[in-house]
Design brief:
Elements: H1 2-25, H2 30-33, E1 41-42, E2 47-55, E3 58-65, E4 69-75, E5 87-92, E6 95-102, E7 108-115, H3 116-120, E8 125-130, H4 142-168
Antiparallel strand pairs: 1-2, 2-3, 3-6, 4-5, 4-7, 7-8
Helix pairs in contact: 1-4
Length: 179
């Protein structure tokens, strides 16, 4: 009877990674099928933000303008109460241009972008970027997390199997535990 239980545990242990491997094959890569967007967000009728990124404490914003524009970029502070903010006025020429802003907090940034046209329409554009959780940083993906979970589960299963086998075959030298 114990040999049947032991055989069933070994078979279940061997089949566990196959279920995870089958899940990997069914995933589709949506990023490869998607085309790059024309714009991320529209500032006004003349100017759009085509890309932005937080790099080494600087916020890089790429603008695309059809006729040239003057923009005010205000860094919004992440604090309670009244505070001062930095305002920068930038002339955006016709075409594509990149603006670099040194931000207060190198881990996260938030800016408000306005133009004369957007202010006439009582609107503005906000861009907020967070560089991620500093506690869990690095080039880790979902596949890495899945592999770590499978490895941890496999380690626990093998340790349990070893302990059960020691008891079944009488090699356990610890006294029986009384509840």
């Amino acid at each position: 009877m114990t040999k049947k239980i032991l055989l069933a545990m070994v078979l279940l242990l061997a089949a566990a990674p196959l279920g995870v491997a089958a899940q990997d094959g069914n995933q589709t890569d949506a990023a490869s099928n998607a085309t790059a967007p024309e714009s991320v967000v529209q500032v006004d009728t003349l100017t759009v933000v085509s890309d932005y990124e937080l790099r080494n404490g600087d916020l890089w914003i790429e603008f695309r303008s059809e006729g040239g524009n003057t923009l005010s970029i205000t860094e919004t502070a992440q604090s309670d109460g009244a505070t001062q903010v930095r305002v920068r006025t930038v002339d955006i020429p016709r075409g594509t241009s990149t603006v670099t802003i040194n931000v207060f907090d190198s881990a996260q940034a938030s800016v408000l972008i306005t133009s004369r046209l957007s202010l006439q329409q009582n609107s503005g554009t906000t861009i907020a970027v967070d560089s991620g959780d500093p506690l869990i940083a690095g080039p880790f993906t979902a596949t890495d997390a899945q592999a770590a979970g499978v490895g941890a589960g496999l380690g626990v299963a093998l340790t349990t199997l070893y302990m059960v086998a020691k008891v079944v075959y009488g090699r356990n030298e610890q006294p029986e535990r009384m509840a």
